[in-house]
Structures are given as C-alpha cells and as structure tokens.
Specification:
By secondary structure, the protein is mostly helical. It contains eight helices and no strands.
C-alpha cells in the first residue's frame, strides 16, 4: 500500500454514538504505513457494521446508514493498514465501502466528500481511471474543494505518470487556493513530477 488518505466524510449524528470514538476528522492527511493501530477496534467495527446493515435491510434507501457503512468499512480497512503495514489486505473492506458510497451517491449525488472518499478507495484498489473521473466530478461540483484537487494531482502523477496533467492541475489548484503554495509536501511531490525524465513526461 504505497499511499493512504484519511477520509473526508465525518460521521453524521447517528443512533450508535460509539462511532465517535474512532471517527476521523474532515482533514485528510497521509499517515506512514506500518504505524501502530488500535487492534481493539476491529471487533467494534464488525459489531457496528452489523447493526447498520440490519437497519439498512429495513430501509434500503437509508442515506445515513449507507454513509455510515461506507465510513465504517473505509476506517476498518485503514485500521488494518495502520496495524499491519505492508502485510495488510484491506481490499475486501474497501470494496464494500465503495459499494455503500455508490449507493449513497445515487441518493445524494452532490455530496462531494463522499465522492472524494469513494475516489480514494477506487484508487487504493487499483481502479485509478475511475478514481480520477470521480475526483474530476467532485471538482466540477465544488471547484474550491482542495482535497479533491490534491488527490487528483497525486493520482495523475503517481499512478498514471501523467506529469504534465498533474502539474497543470497543481497550477489550477493554486488559482483557487493560493495558500497551497505553502504546502511543502505537495510542492515537493509536484517538483518530483517536474524533474521526471523527459521521456517519461506525456
């Protein structure tokens, strides 16, 4: 797993308030793999997921339950990465999250954070072209969505090795968010794209 992003969608107020214990903030940050994770969370993820899945059987169009389940499986997979590092195999959980997010977007297609979270998981599971499409859709919905733009830059450069497009997207980002000039990690990544061998640039 060469890259991970914390999800953007914050858990909504729900019946199961215990979810707040491990919900993540709307600030998306990369975390190095192999760091210690709380392994006690795994059975809790399973228990919470079962309860929301039961609720969904009673109401298949329950938007909150769909988002909660997407978030749960996203975080469950991330917890496995945090705990096991390179030996983690979170794909099955992330594929389930993608499915729930997709259903949620059918109901609420303008939910940009959910769309970006789904795009992250598409990227993690090797579906880069689909991820890029979802990032672009998110940006059309919200041109100032900084994380969608940053993740798009990274996907274009890292996975597609389309450095020209990645640099172009970085310049577009700076137009809507000039403060990102101070984002040292992003600048370093884009500089690496600029310095790539000419024969690799598209």
């Amino acid at each position: 797993m060469p890259f991970t992003f914390r999800r953007l969608s914050i858990l909504a107020v729900a019946v199961l308030t215990a979810l707040a214990v491990f919900s993540l903030t709307a600030c998306s940050k990369e975390k190095p793999e192999g760091t210690s994770g709380d392994t006690t969370l795994s059975p809790r993820f399973e228990s919470e997921a079962q309860q929301f899945e039961t609720a969904l059987k009673d109401d298949p169009k329950n938007l909150n339950a769909l988002i909660q389940l997407g978030n749960l499986y996203y975080d469950w997979g991330q917890n496995e990465v945090d705990t096991k590092g390179e030996t983690a195999q979170p794909e099955d959980k992330w594929i389930r999250a993608i499915n729930y997010y997709g259903q949620a977007l059918e109901i609420d297609p303008k939910n940009v954070n959910i769309r970006v979270d789904m795009a992250n998981l598409l990227r993690f599971t090797g579906r880069t072209d689909e991820a890029i499409s979802q990032y672009r859709t998110a940006i059309k919905l919200d041109p100032k969505h900084v994380q969608a733009r940053i993740n798009l830059i990274s996907a274009l450069g890292q996975q597609k090795e389309d450095y020209k497009a990645a640099i172009s997207e970085y310049e577009a980002l700076l137009k809507v968010a000039p403060d990102q000039k101070d984002n040292a990690a992003l600048k370093q990544e884009v500089d690496s794209f600029r310095n790539a061998p000419k024969e690799m640039k598209k």
